[in-house]
Structure formats: structure tokens, C-alpha cells
Amino acid sequence: MFLQRSAITAARRVAARPAVARTFVTSVARLDASRPATPSEQAAALAGTAEKKVGSYKVLKGTSIDNGAVDNFNGAPRNLGRCTVTFHVVEIRTEEDLFGPGAAPGTVPTDLEQSTGLERLEILGKMEGVDIFDMRPLDATRLGTMKDPIMVRSAGEEQFAGCTGFPADSHSVTWLGITRERPIERCPECGSVYKMDYVGPEDDHHHHHPPEFEEPKTFADYIKPEYRYK
Q1: Where along the chain is Zn(2+) bound (predicted)?
Q2: Residue 75: Cβ within 10 Å count
Q3: Which pLDDT tens digit goes with each residue over 78-136?
Q4: Rounded CA gap, 125 and 42, in Å?
Q5: b or e along 2-26 (b: 16 or more beta carbons within 10 Å of the residue's beta carbon)?
Q6: Which of 18, 20, 148, 165 is the most buried (most CB within 10 A)?
Q7: Tell me, what's the pLDDT at 18?
Q8: For the domain that residue 199 is a member of, what is the CATH number?
Q9: Is 190 one of the annotated binding-site residues?
Q10: d(Cα 64, Cα 23) in Å, to the nearest integer?
Q11: 39 part of a folded domain
């Protein structure tokens, strides 16, 4: 025989492995676990330990207790029987709030301790179950019209939207540029209308950069405003 041992003998020597790594009850319990909210809980979750102490920093949604000052906080009351109201407060309001506490001397800093800016905002959002960068595709279940356009959220002065037609993927991606000055744009392939939903600050106080170059004029700049979206 060319085989030294039979297939049955070889199969007996292989260690049996369970089909499921952990029970479904454990998986459900992990999904139902509360999300870390305090700095220490977030640091411990990222480090994979039961407890870890870090310096103080501002979280995305903190918790405050006040006696009836509803106008100062966001959220719903928790306990009205004892006149104690608990609210969730958004602590991240400016760029200065997106700085980490840093690591202790002699230790390697984690992303939670040293990240800044948008990276830090994304990490804090993931820790609390908030999708900071909404990467979901645009609404492709209908054709946008002038009376009912497809809204595109934007936190900046300009935004690019990719249209794949209606029904979805009926044509190749056509990129449409919309700005605050021209918030409405129509796809030249399918005719779907998109409109900017501006959610950014009303006034940008960053005036330290030089003035931007003026965009070259085209025939579209000489169309009367009342004819632009007809």
C-alpha cells in the first residue's frame, strides 16, 4: 500500500474542534453590554483590561445631574421622583476639545491617549456607538426632483455627491459638485436632483489663510438665477 495509515486512523488523531467558538448566550450578553462612557472605561476597553486609569479628557456624551435645568442639557430625564434629572451632555464642541490626556511616563500611548482632531472624534464616536463619518450611500430608492430632491448632508462649504442613477447602478458613477452658494445640482445622466443639507457652522472664524483663488468663469455663471434650476 502507498498509504502508511488509513484515512480513518488519521482522522482519529486530529483533535476535535467545536463548531461554535462560544455559545450564543455569551454573544448576546456581549452585545447587550453597556458601552463605555467614562475615560477610564474607554481606556480599559481599548487596552483589553478590566481597569485602566488615564488622564481626564472630554468625551462625546457625558452625564450630568441637575435639578430641573432642562434648557441647559440635551436628553431625557431619568428620575423625576426625587427631583433629580440626569442628562447626556455633548462635551465636544470645538477643536480644542479634541486633545487626549497623553500617556503616563514610561508607557506606550494608545490611540485614545494621543489622537487628536478628526481621528479622535471618530474614536470617541465608535466607543459610544455614534457613526461620526456617515458612509451610508445616498437614497437611491427614488428619483430626486426639484420639489423633492435627494438631500446630501455636508459640514463644509462644498460637497461631492456620486450618482449611480435610478434604479441604482443604472449608469456609471457621475460626480456632482454642490456648494452653499449653489446647493442644488442635477445629474446629467438620469436627471436626479440633489440638494445640500448644510450642517456645519454658520460662520468660519479661521481667517489665518490667504484668500482663495477665484474660480474661472464659465457660461453657467452668466445664466440668470431664475433660469438656473428650470
Answers
A1: 163, 171, 187, 190
A2: 15
A3: 444 444 444 455 677 777 788 888 888 888 888 888 888 888 888 888 877 778 777 78
A4: 11
A5: eeeeeeeeeeeeeeeeeeeeeeeee
A6: 165
A7: 56
A8: 2.60.260.40
A9: yes
A10: 37
A11: yes
Phi-psi region of 48 (alpha: psi -120 to 50; beta: other; left: phi over 0): left
The residue that leads in pLDDT, 180 or 57, is 180
| Residue 83 annotated as part of some ligand binding site | no
Domain count, the chain: 2
pLDDT at 51: 60
pTM value surpassing 0.70: no
The model's pLDDT over 33-77, given as tens digits with 9 standing for 90+, comes to: 566 666 667 767 766 666 655 666 777 665 444 444 433 334 444
Provide the residue range defining the domain that includes 203.
150-228
More confident residue, 127 or 162: 162
15 part of a folded domain: no
Which is higher by pLDDT, 91 or 27?
A: 91
Instruction: Tell me the residue type at 107.
Output: T
What are the phi and psi torsion angles at 99 (to 5°)? -125, 135
171 is in an annotated binding site: yes
Q: Does 134 reside within a domain?
A: no
Contact, 100 vs 113, CB < 8 A? Answer: yes
| More confident call, 101 vs 24 | 101
